[in-house]
Amino acid sequence: MPVVTVPLVAGASVSVRVLDAVAAHQVEAEATDLHRRIRDGADVLAAIGTDLPPVCGDGSDKGLGLYLEDYVLGRLAIVAWTGIGDEDGEPVDPTPTAIAAVMRDPALAKAIRDAATAPLHATIAEGKG
């Protein structure tokens, strides 16, 4: 799968794998499974090193589902990044926990999601997917 670079704020960038239909279905399936496990009482968010993102502050099940899709997409699509650090400004690798933190930011998640899925959506819109 091809990789594109997504420029972010303050000189940071993320290298993102462009997802095909199979990978997009994998994102949906894994996110659905995580969501089911949370509803069944599993502490999935703690296991990936995060808590409810701000989009879920109202207790919205839909917001949680969208966040889980973004998290799984980020885990599958992000291959590298530059300029992303921890609270002390130290560079961090794109580990599952770091990806969970990045994907909590709605603007960053949207930029990454769009880069990873835009070609697939264009193909579908053209009637070729």
Question: How would you explain this protein's 3D organization?
Answer:
The protein is mainly alpha-helical. It has one domain (3-125). The chain contains five helices and three strands. A three-stranded antiparallel sheet has the order 1-2-3. Helix 1 packs across helix 3 (61-77) and helix 3 (61-77) crosses helix 5 (106-125). The longest helix has 20 residues, at 106-125.
Short description:
This is Tail assembly chaperone. With about 130 residues, this protein is mainly α.
Relevant terms:
single chain; 129 residues; mainly alpha; 12% strand; flat; Tail assembly chaperone
Helices and strands in order:
Layout: E1 3-7, E2 13-17, H1 21-39, H2 44-47, H3 61-77, E3 78-82, H4 96-102, H5 106-125
Antiparallel strand pairs: 1-2, 2-3
